[in-house]
Automatic annotation (TrEMBL):
Gene3D superfamilies: q2cbj1_9rhob like domain. Belongs to the iron/ascorbate-dependent oxidoreductase family. Keywords: Iron, Metal-binding, Oxidoreductase. It comes from the Bacteria. This is Fe2OG dioxygenase domain-containing protein. Pfam families: HalD (PF23169). InterPro entries: BesD/HalB-like, Oxoglu/Fe-dep_dioxygenase_dom. It comes from Nocardia sputorum. The lineage of its organism: Bacteria, Bacillati, Actinomycetota, Actinomycetes, Mycobacteriales. PROSITE patterns: FE2OG_OXY. Residues 138-252 form the Fe2OG dioxygenase domain.
Amino acid sequence: MAALGVLDEIIDTARYPLADPGSSALREAVRRARAELADTGCTVLRGFIRPELTDTLRAQGERMAPHAHYEVEQVNAYNIPLDADLPEDHPGRIVLERGNAFVPRDRIPADALIHRLYTDELFQRFVADCFGLAELHEFADPLAGLCLNVVAPGMSHPWHFDTNEFTVSMLTQPAEDGGVFEYCPNIRTPEAEHLDDVRAVLTGTGERFVQRLELRPGDLQLFQGRFSLHRVSPVSGARQRHSAIFAYTDRPGMVGTVERTRQLFGRVLPDHLAAAADAVRGDRLLD
Ligand SMILES: O=C(O)CCC(=O)C(=O)O
Ligand SMILES: [Fe+2]
């Protein structure tokens, strides 16, 4: 039973018995995750990975980090074009430097701990339960589905809202200093942007909105970033900060656009071009 192998080798199944969804330990873990997600859009499952594996987790990340696409990009918090027609005082006009770099899925060995977790069906089932989703699918995108997010000293992953509904991540290597995950729970809602509050955070006067997570390698983080502005604060010291991003959707077949893929990874694959062609044609018939 391959799935059981992943569970017992990688996950601390004494704390998170994923193969036994009816157990009181697992029911309590799911209940807590759901309650915290409903409250703040964020929950951390501490010590998800077996403690004796945290050094392997770190070392594997360190080995793949040189394959990240390093290119500083000018962005805003909303992931919209910088020349968008916005009022003078709109926080979307504040330009930030995105200095993090992603190692794409095709550079992450299939036997790496994070890759084995990402594709494990019981892990996916557990994550879906925590988010209260009926189903969960890996991205069909060969690059964006699983990434290692690398923030080098002097860099940050600046304030932003996510375009996806939910994110699953795991710190694999902390920074020596800085590199803290900071977030503003529900600073906007589906009904209201709360631009004044967002501007306050972006300009450094919104401390009252900001919460900080103390993450340790091997903690599993579940996050809903569409309404909660968040960032990884500037990294300092000698070490890069590494985190695995496990990207899932509630519908199958998710492939990134050609433009965004080139920005994030510096290249595109035939799958991205094919998906773009399908989107234009609206069907999969031969020309
Ligand atoms: O690396 C992290 O902890 C945060 C990543 C993030 O916010 C993102 O990829 O959208
Ligand atoms: Fe994000």
